[in-house]
Amino acid sequence: MVKLGLSIGFSAAKIDMPMDAVLRAEAVGFDSVWTFETYGSDALTPLAYVGALTKKLRLGTAIAQAAARTPANLAMAAQTIDAMCGRGRMMVGLGVSGPQIVEGWYGQPWGKPNTRLRDYTAIMKKIWRREGPVSHDGKEIALPYTGPGSIGLGKPLKSVLHGNPDIPVYLGTGTTTNIRMTAEIADGWLAGTKWVPGRETEFIPIIEEGLAKRTDGKVLKDFEIIAQIPVYMSTDVKASLAALKPNIALYVGGMGAKEMNFHKDNMVNRGFKAEAEKIQELYLAGRKDEANDVVPDDYVDAGCLVGDAQRIKERWKPWATSGITGAVFAGPNRPTVEMVDALAQAAR
User: Fold this and answer.
1) CA distances from 36 to 61, 96, 162, 249, 261 (A)
2) Which of 10, 89, 199, 344 meets the CB 3.0–4.6 Å disulfide criterion with 28?
């Protein structure tokens, strides 16, 4: 059975934690709650808050930005939340944003994301396992640090906190090379909105190639594949699709540089190249309403669950059999208690 998750995203101008929905999700049997971060609220503080007010929901970042903190800092935060809220609840979803945010907001070099994520994951797992003082001779990240500005006095250290050595790491990746690497080194893949029913034949072989490189015996049935599915409940399907388009246009058109926009690439890879190009052109020209109108209904409908409870229930069926192990549901305006309950029932 696919595990159900609830995304509470990141804040808008003001923090508004949808705790009624979170508590209802726990009550009806959801498995997890997820946060993410861009350049406003962070992903970790809300999880600690949610964890203190719930008992069973697993707590995940989808994603925590690698550029936002060192691997040691993220490992410390994760094992602290896990220890305070209940051992086995914390999950680290890790990834990178585009260079506009990495270099413009976090002040970090874009570098080589594949190598950085590989080093980052290895360091966190070493910290949690406490098998000895942590050292790592990585191509992007090294402990102790000996690069420019170092005075040479760094030494390997072991975490004082005896935390959970088995905190899972999921990577939010999108290219073939990075998805393959994810299956090689991580506990699961945060597929985000890249996974839609029918694309499993594209992704599963890549994942299996990565799994074949592992030395721990993990195979496909042991590997988590988690999709994010925006949800809009309404009796007016056409209006619901339209309501979701501005957010899609924002990401495809404006969330990233013109030369490097992963969200645009995702639309292209799903077979909507001409539309993706036009959306970006209009959005960057400031013609946002026109960009919204170019987003195809078929694109929205294939990647979301839209309609009344019965339509959502029917359209959920291909998702449930597509090969995902987890589905994280996201609403456009903060999920209501009624939406969470309906989704839980539709998913069974």
Assistant:
1) 6, 12, 26, 19, 18
2) 344
pLDDT score of 332 more than 60: no
Cα 170 to Cα 70: distance, rounded to the nearest angstrom? 17
Residues near 317 by beta carbon (within 8 Å), at least 6 away in sequence: none
Q: Give 158-213 pLDDT, tens digit per residue.
A: 999 999 999 999 999 999 999 999 999 999 999 998 999 999 999 999 999 999 99
- pLDDT, residue 216, reads 94
Pairing status of strand 3-9 against strand 326-330: parallel
Question: Which residues are registered as beta bridge partners of 188?
Answer: 170, 224
**For the chain, what are the domain ranges?**
3-232+308-346, 235-304
Determine the residue type at 317.
Answer: K
Secondary-structure class of domain 3-232+308-346 per CATH: alpha beta
Amino acid at 103: E
Helix axes 309-320, 337-346, angle to 10 degrees: 50
At 23-72, the pLDDT tens digits run 988 988 889 999 999 899 999 999 999 999 999 999 999 999 999 999 99
Q: Using a CB cutoff of 8 Å and minimum separation of 24, what contacts does 170-175 make? A: 170/60, 170/62, 170/91, 170/92, 170/93, 170/94, 170/224, 170/226, 171/93, 171/94, 171/95, 171/117, 171/121, 172/62, 172/63, 172/93, 172/94, 172/95, 173/95, 173/117, 174/262, 174/265, 174/266
Tokens coding 242: 């339209």
Q: What backbone phi and psi angles, to 5 degrees, belong to 158?
A: -115, 140
* Tokens 């992963």 belong to residue: 262
